Amino acid sequence: MKPQHAMPDQRCPQCGKNLNRSSPVDLQLLAPVPGDFTICIGCVAVLQFDQQMKLQVPEQAAIEQLDAQTLRQLIAAQNLILSLKAERQSRGDA
After folding, report:
1. Would you say 76 and 83 are in contact if contact means Cβ atoms under 8 Å apart?
2. 67-92 average pLDDT score
3. Considering only Cβ atoms within 10 Å of each terminal Cβ, which end of the chain, N or C, has fewer?
4. Number of folded domains in the chain?
5. DSSP state of 92
6. What is the DSSP letter of 32?
7. Residue 22 structural domain
């Protein structure tokens, strides 16, 4: 199981889903820090932690400056969430 880090309740700025945990996409045990990226479990939007650890929609320039490995990890996390949602829906768990 992936490590999870508790965070203050907040809503995704894209879809409004309540979020209170984060999991690192690189499987490291590190808690997120300001500037880190994450994916919303509800809408799979790419989000970024600001200096107060609030989730925000990142500027396009910030995404364009990501290194290839980080970008691949974010896309892989999005694809995993989408496939898990599809699997749950096909089983009738949605």
Report:
1. no
2. 92
3. N
4. 1
5. T
6. P
7. 5-91
